């Protein structure tokens, strides 16, 4: 497998190189602070690397724009500097620079084909409160097939995606059991147990957990996720990234 150079900025923000493209997921570059609203979000840790230190970004994969833990103020300002921002049609209506993709719709950039895949930000019917979100599949000749889940909590959708793309080799899963109380104890993103179920659906894919630290409403630690995989005998599939350290995934 060709290795993918990757750098975890923090939270859901991952910078990686794929088919010669510099790609960034859900940009969050603000320093710690509070985001008042119907539910106040609290950012606890700033970015491990400043946006200005990344160099040019070719593509942003934006799972959604509704919540600051996936697109904060500095991240939103960055979008105007990026040639291509892929997101949901709803995000495209709110942000002119976004190219909106419906589930299973494809967009070719350079040598890479990027497919939008469905995601559910909470339990069934959550869209009325949390809004529509998306994940992505990346494919290119000579490169591993990569799945970026976005803020998805549905294992059933991961299974559907795995059926359509049986050769996924790297899965970037948004974990952390995000929970702001809107649906009681039902989480808005994968928790340790459902992340393990998702990994099982993704066969032998390397699992790269992100969205696992840095915000108060992430209700599970990364250590719990690691422990869940260890107890299931699947720890060898995890690739745990340290924010600020660029590594090769593969």
What is the β-strand count? Answer: 15
Can you count the helices?
6
User: What is the N-to-C order of secondary-structure elements (H for helix, E for strand)?
Assistant: EEEEEEHEHEEEHEEHEHEHE
Low-confidence parts lasting 5 or more residues at pLDDT below 50?
none
Per the principal axes of the C-alpha atoms, what is the gross shape? globular
Structural class: alpha/beta
Helix fraction bin:
10-25%
Distance between the termini: 6 Å
Rg on CA atoms, Å: 16 Å
Sheet with most strands: 7 strands, mixed
Name the average pLDDT. 95
- β-strand percent reads 25-35%
If strands are numbered along the chain, what order do they take across the biggest sheet?
8-7-6-3-2-1-15
In words, what does this structure look like?
This protein is an alpha/beta fold and 250 residues long. It is 19% helix and 29% strand. Helix 4 (155-164) packs parallel to helix 5 and helix 5 (192-201) crosses helix 6. The model has no long low-confidence stretch (mean pLDDT 95).
